[in-house]
Amino acid sequence: MLENRLLLGSKSGTSPKFTAVREKLINWGIFIVLSIIWGSSFMLMKVGMKEGGTYQLSPYQVASLRMIFSGLALLPFCYSALKQIPKNKLFIVVLSGLMGSFIPAYLFCIAETKIDSALAGILNALTPLFTIIVGIVFFNLKSNKQKVIGILLGLVGLVLSVTAGKTLHFDNFSYSFFVVLATIFYGLNVNMVGSQMQNVSAINIAAAAFCFAMIPAGIILFSTGYFNYDFSNPALIQATLAGGTLGVINTSIASVLFYVLVKRAGIIFASTVTYAIPFVSLAIGLYYNEPIHPLRLVGLGIILGGVYIVNKQKK
After folding, report:
1. Which of 260, 137, 124 has its CA nearest to residue 186?
2. Which H, E and C letters describe 190-219, residue by residue?
């Protein structure tokens, strides 16, 4: 019901100007909520893999818990989703779950064993670039000079933010590639949702995708020996709760909102959510007294400029 209300167009009796303003406000509201939810994901991964305690979950365990809890959250909708999704779209839905959530979940957790959460959040802003590249190469996406300039400007800010006040060692740099690879999968998924599943409900896409993803995630979690741990230990409970929060809020709920945003505002606008994520990551870092280099803030300001150019409509 929530999704239907978000997707509803203008009603009779409302002026076109009022309707346009209302639609933009709803789109930006979803944009802001997604930025906050996904921006906090990187710190939650760190909490799940926190060092120094009796237990330290592996990246595979945290990612598996994330996928399992996301599937459990949407399990009540799975049966209905499977009945409503056209049979010829079911494979695409499952593939969307793998590329848009399952594989990136493991890649990000592996990366954060060597890089900090703020850097992961910043690198995540590569998603709009790969969204356009993948769209042009595989999905016949028509872009324009304005959008290309905006995304390139965002990448300039990205580079400045990554390099400001911090030297990347080879180990950190190599593990950053896992985040880059995850953004490529995000770009593939965004284009696939936008071009192949316009007539499939967002909640149905998420429910079917994550319920199927529970199966390989459960196998991976079992094979790592997670169920042999002492569950009376508070450290294990805290790490498990971090993975559960990632699954229910940062994956299931956020994914439904993201699919809604793709349908409402298009793939380019939806993918630029990742530009705002570093601000949330850095804000969390400030809360935990992490030093923030001023040039990193300048870089993020440039990124916002790129977001504005990408989404500015020509008169």
Report:
1. 124
2. HHHHHHHCCCCCHHHHHHHHHHHHHHHHHH
Residue whose structure tokens are 């400030």 = 286
Q: How confident is the model at residue 10 (pLDDT cuts 50, 70, 90)?
A: very low
Condensed to tens digits (0 to 9), the pLDDT of residues 92-138 reads 888 988 998 899 999 999 998 887 787 787 778 778 777 877 887 78
Quick one: which of 102, 54, 63 has its CA closest to 232? 54
Structure tokens at 193: 């949702």
- Whose tokens are 């009945």? That residue is 83
Dump pLDDT digits (tens) for 267-286. Answer: 778 877 877 788 888 888 77
Band (pLDDT 50/70/90 cuts) for residue 166 is low
Asked if pLDDT for residue 34 goes beyond 60, the answer is yes
DSSP states along 231-270: TT-HHHHHHHHHHHHHHIIIIIIHHHHHHHHHHHH-HHHH
Which pair of structure tokens corresponds to residue 239? 């790490």
Cα(152)–Cα(66) distance, integer angstroms: 32
**Contact residues for 60 (Cβ-Cβ < 8 A; gap 6+):** 106, 109, 220, 221, 224
Question: Backbone dihedral region of 92: left (phi > 0), alpha (psi from -120 to 50 degrees) or beta?
Answer: alpha
279 half-sphere exposure, CB direction, 13 A CA radius = 16
Q: What is the 8-class DSSP label of residue 314?
A: P
Alpha-carbon separation of residue 17 from 11, 231, 232, 289 (angstroms): 12, 57, 58, 45
Q: Is the pLDDT assigned to residue 2 strictly greater than 80?
A: no
Q: Is the pTM of this model over 0.85?
A: no
